[in-house]
Amino acid sequence: MEQSLHPAATHHLPPFITAPGETDVLFNVMVVFVLLLIFLIGILYLRLHALPEHMAHGASKTQLQLVAVLSLIALFTHNHLFWIIALLLAMVEFPDFSSPIRSMARSLAKMAGRDEAEDAAEMNDAVPAAKPAQPHPGEPQSSKLQPDAPQWVPLELKPPPGDDKVGRRG
User: Fold this and answer.
1) Distances (CA, A) of 82 to 56, 76, 78
2) Which parts of the chain sit beneath pLDDT 50?
3) CB under 8 Å to 81, separation ≥6 — which residues?
4) Is 109 in contact with 122 (CB distance < 8 Å)?
5) Going by C-beta distance under 8 Å and a sequence separation of 6 or more, which residues neighbour residue 135?
6) Which of 5, 40, 114, 141 is found 20 to 30 A from 23 (Cα to Cα)?
7) Are 112 and 75 in contact (CB under 8 A)?
8) Separation CA 137–CA 21 (nearest Å)
9) How far apart are CA 134 and CA 71, in angstroms?
10) Residues 6 or more apart from 165 whose CB is under 8 A from it?
């Protein structure tokens, strides 16, 4: 069957118009182009939403988690205010509150005569099994006191010798 142009068609057609039954090259090129463009725009969009997280990556763990949660909320709700807040929080450096408190605790432990190794050992020890407050009367005296267990004594502060306010204290 011979393919010919319709008699009403002009004799000079642009190159993007194909004859019936032939492959439309322009359509196929545009489909690939649009799919690549959608893919690249999606990557750019997700990269932009992750920008606050990348900025806060060197910050403290708490700040990073807060920024990450705000970024995810902004991503799923399409509420840009959360993303702006996350971006601002990523730019701000949170002050370090824990280091001075740790330093004060170490200084107080030195003043009290406590050893840091003992404190670390106490923090790492598991909670011992529940023991009765009063030992059984039939137990021998040697088992009541264990030399390796710490002996806890309530803290009693004695007033200095020249303090005249002893009577008012409780």
Assistant:
1) 15, 11, 9
2) 1, 126-127, 143, 169-170
3) 74
4) no
5) 143, 144
6) 40
7) no
8) 105
9) 57
10) 159
